[in-house]
Every structure is written in C-alpha cells, then in structure tokens.
Amino acid sequence: MKPPMGVFQIKNLNTNKVLIDSSIDMVFKWNRHKMELKFGTHRNKKLQKAKMFFELGIKYYPKSPNVYNSMADYYISQKDNKKALEYATKAYEISSNDYFAKRIKTLKN
Which sections of the protein are TPR repeats (predicted)? Predict the structure, then answer.
C-alpha cells in the first residue's frame, strides 16, 4: 500500500503565517516536522521560536493560565490534541475559567 501524498500547511494561529509543504509520504513528512520542532532543529526558525517563547512563558510565569493556553494553541496548530488538552487542562486548573473548561470539552471530542 502506498503512503498518502499531498500538500499541507502548518499555520501560526497568532500571526496567521503559514508554512506550506508537500510530500509523497505525508505521514513521514508530518512526523518529521513534529520531531524537528520537539528537538529544536526545525528549518522554519519563526515556527521554532514560537514554541520556545511559549516554553519560556511557562518557565517564568508558571501561575499564568494564558501561557498554558498559548502552548495549547501551539499544539493545536501541530495537530497534537493530546498535548493541547494537557496544557488547556493546566490553564483551567490555575484559573477555573469557563473558557478553558469549554476548550477542554472541545479537545476531548
């Protein structure tokens, strides 16, 4: 069975900038992008910096629900709902805000 091929985009939800890429093996290419971001080696330095800034926000403002919510946004943009749910849950634990409760419910579905 041949792997799926096509064109895809990774979108920064804060700036609406997109990275457009294509592949004859979409699963491999998508996993490569996620791995490069995880290890800090992604070729799109702006996308890499976005994740770094969210991580720094969490480090310096660990009691702010907004930094966890921003990291949830990042993981949603990476199609990683499991990690997004983790960060949205942390934001809710800190603030008990209904917005985060609704977001958690949406991510679970």
Answer: 65-98
